[in-house]
Structures
1.
Amino acid sequence: ETFEVLIRLAENYTSTLFCNAYRNMAAEAAVHVQEFFTDVGLFLFGTDASTEEFVNRFFDTLFPVVYNHLINPGLTDISVEYAECLRAARRDIRPFGNIPKKAIGQVGRSLLPSRAFLQALNLGVEVINTTDHLPFSRECSRALLRMQYCPHCQGLTLSKPCLGYCLNIIRGCLADLADVDLHWQGYIQALEEFSGALSGVHSIEHVLLNFHSLVHDALVQARINGPEVSEQVNKICGPPVRKPKQSPGCSFDQNKDNQVLKMFSRDSEQTLTNRRKEFVRHLRPYRAFYGGLADQLCANELAAADGLPCWNGGDLVRSYTHRVVGSGIKAQSANPEVKVKGTDPVISQIIDKLKHVIQV
């Protein structure tokens, strides 16, 4: 949602530029501005598109409007066919100088890591939801039942399992999750790196909220290059073919989105950067969440305190005497309490996806 509002705000700034400084072409330009920022949003949220192509398309479609109103204005508008010729010739004529190339570089450098960051966030949600709803095996369910409720059959309703006994069962039940741990740590580190890459002049906030400045520079360049551009246009497209004038004035309602956008201001890029950094900072304490989950559950909630009698699966004892295995699937071959099979295919898929993010 934050990215969606950012895109709307950047579109608002760019449309406002036309309304304030180039009012006669504002209504026509607004269509192309909206198309451009729609492309930005589609790219950010995963559509397979080229940033170079949609930036070029924006300047291609803007050129006929600029030519009609700024470079070679007339009492009538240019025809649709003539506008199409201008659009097709824009990259050869280069009316905006090197501004489109500059825009392509800035937009590409900001949107690619931003899209990767968003995709990584979505993967994080998928990992949490998947692991949260992972079903226990039958062996695990039986072991948990024996650990938690079998003492009740002997009237030991207040007893708790021995720490080692608890660890063997919970580590066995959560063996798949423990194997996620290393990749989860790498994932959080990758998020930190993505966040760092999104800061400064290449951040999506800085680039999008200042895109209107690039457009302004492009229009200034077109005005300066006007005579030369007109000469080239005449060679390629011939003299202007015009039709009755239909261009309305500025129809952009600058107040329309005030309710949604009032939370943003010119320091929005700083606000969004801080939000992103704050989010990553909150994630750091959970780097080892999956690897330490079994230990936390047993030590903090399930197991008896040191020195107290505890349940070992068959009786109330002073201490648990069986070997305590480590975490992860491989360590479970020696687990005396739970038989653990291979890695769950769902977990394998999650690990593969995390590896992909880490390698980006």
2.
Amino acid sequence: MSEIRRGVLGAAVFLLTLIGVEIYFFYSFLTHGILVSYGYSLDTLYSSLFYLSVFLFLVVVVSVAVTVILYGFIKRRMWTRRFALFFLVWAMLWPLWGILVWNHVFEQVVLLVIYAILILYLLTSYVKKYFSNIFRYGKYTLYKREVVLKSGKKLTIYFFSEHEPKSGVPTAMPDGYTVGINPRSNMPYLEKYYPGVYKYGKYTLYKRKVTLESGKTLTIYFFSDHKPKSGTPTGMPDGYVVGVNPRSGMPYLRKKNSNRNSSKKVDSKKVGNKNVRSEKTMGETGRKPSNVIYVVSKPQPGSVRGDWAVRSHGKIFSHHRTKQAAIREARRIARERDATVMVQNTDGTFSMGFKPRSKKK
């Protein structure tokens, strides 16, 4: 029989014995108890105020005490054992009184022995284990079990179960641990508690040390919504804030004010000190930048000969007063170079102004 079943069976026997003894106590009290030896009887119960007061007092005290003990045993409250010991010591005074006044001595001795046995039962290790501080999480109870490894070392493992396992005893929450929930099975488990751990929604911040090829040790930080294979939970390092990846929605750490210092690589060529376009923007047709002729407004300062310029990626061919004249010149150059003409619009974007025909095979 397991320790759990042994403890439950012992508690049931204790409660049934206690209830039976108290029922017999009231029977003897009304028929041939201590007060009967002083001239009181069942017929004088309602006529004698003292006799009625003592009887009602005992009924209330014993009923409340037995109910509290029954509740404590079912809920396994830590205070139940001490309360039951106090009640049994108080209950032993009545058979001791009966022995002193020589009122049914054998009966009083039997009651005294039964009370003593109940007290000894409450002092056993089985009862102490039964009333140990058991941790529960919803419908699950925390158990512990000792396992022996191949090396011979003993290891205590903790696990949750909603029913009584084949091996293991209920236990309290060990120090330094907290409850985690498996996202797949929704089963609780114990995990180490790290004070000051930073969390962002359902994600926890972890850190891990990695060794580079140069031998230098580097500490990396990352977020995870489950326990990773390596890494320990940590707090927010100084000088960092949380950013969120717009595609995956995953948080990450970045240095403070990093947006001010970061910039994308753009084409350094400016047109009229205002228009800046990257090679990717100007080359929307997919051709190489060197094979595109641009018609742009406001050429570079110091070379102003008109309002429009014809240029390639790194060279200015000519300047023109009108846009149409610049387009005609750009098309002529494009035919010679088998290039594409891109014309700048008023909003700064480019549209295709000429595309060479594909050569016939």
3.
Amino acid sequence: MKKSIIIIAALCCAALCFDAMAEDSTSTSKLTILRADSGKNLSDMNLSLYSAINDFGISGINVGEAVKFTAPNAGWKLNWIEVMGWSGFNNTTQTFPSDRNFLIEIRDKDYNLLYKFADEQNNYFLSTTPPTGFSAIEIPALQVTGDFYVVFYDRGAMGIAMESDNGTGNSYFFMNGQMIPAQFKMTDTNETIKVNWMIRAVGK
């Protein structure tokens, strides 16, 4: 992983409050939050920000950070996506980056495209500090069956949070029509580690 990846040293207690509020609203409205990370509290995760542009250059605009989920029951509909990410902030000039587009795709188990959505990153990930919680991106209710994938293309517009410990094997790079396990070889130890993209799927 490149040294330019911004390390999120610690997440404040606001993140824990956010998670608690999300869990409460889930039980009240009968929504189900699907997650494929380690399941730890955000404050206990080893998180950093990643952009495909850093590793793949300009070709990174066509590389997606993908997470595999499984619909909990027949007829389950996806209502929104939660992504932890950050568009950045220049402390020297006290300015935000210019608007640029990210892209989200929903694909079935055979990678067939079910839904596509693009928008400007500053509409969701604008902050003077790195993220302490998830941003919700609403989509039209979409029925999914069995395994499906949420694919997020940062396109160099922002960084998406990834968990570097306790990889679950459900995170991938989607490129050239293939799902490639999201893992990195550490230059200092030659150890290969799996990562978890911080993406969640919410529906009922």
4.
Amino acid sequence: MDLKVKNALEAGLLAYAKEEGIDGKAFFSTLENIYDTEAPFMDKVSLLDEAFDTNQQFEELREVAFDLLMINFFSEDIQKLEEDYLDSEEWESIEDQTLDRGTELLNVFLYLRECADEEVNPSLDDFLKEFLLVEDDEFQDEHRIYEKVIANQILIESDYAEIAKTAKTLDIEDELADVFYPIMSFFTEPNPSSEKLTDFSASALNKSYDNAIYQLIINFNK
């Protein structure tokens, strides 16, 4: 299991469990075993879904766990496959089957992995313009999805409360509605102190989920 994925998953699950007043260690162990399993990707997806089906108290984190499963595949599993596997019909089929899975956090994780590889510090401007290419005419889907982020980049100069205030204005159908607050908060404060984490939690719209996602991102970035 990729170390960044492991650290992020554990931190996120335990943060969620703490807010919900439930045990997260056993479920983390279950997911860790799934990520480490020697099996085709879609078999792992099935195992992941079965785990969440039997642990409904963690349902909110299902699609984020899928994002991390995908990242783990790119980091670990892909090394055991043919060099051109991502160009194969099998991978094309997997992409078709998982079109509706995951969240926009996948892009954040991919970006942070790229930053680590290139030894550069992540920034919102770089994420939008150089990674997502939102200013490129060929990537207008990304521009549409990240429209609220693009329009509110100034928020990274403010505080958690201001970010949360804007997050509340997003339509529930917006693809970034659930993750706007933790994503913008990360680019505002990628290495929060315990005091900052308390402030973040105080302004959270969905305390359990937001704390979990923030912990996922900041620990993946370590």
